[in-house]
């Protein structure tokens, strides 16, 4: 049933793109080619890290009226967690690996500039 729906959809699209009375029904307002650059957007941040250590630290502060000296173990564990997380993020950024196997916008732009669209047919 799903395959039949896909075929019907493809037939409808081809009918709309075909020429009727000398003119196509759907006319694109731009050329159907890729640009040679990508918008430079920052990737979304991942999950928050060190949440458990932070909550343990907050609970310790609450119990001890926000005295840092009594919560030194919790503070130390939180800072070590933060340092480990920053080190792994730095390693991932140096390797150029982004979650989902996607290219960064800078990498995509360099590839698109290296292999631009052909403006005329061969």
TrEMBL record:
InterPro entries: CHCH, Cys_alpha_HP_mot_SF, Ribosomal_mS37_met. Keywords: Disulfide bond. Residues 50-84 form the CHCH domain. It holds the Pfam family CHCH. Transmembrane segments: none annotated. This is CHCH domain-containing protein. It comes from Ameca splendens.
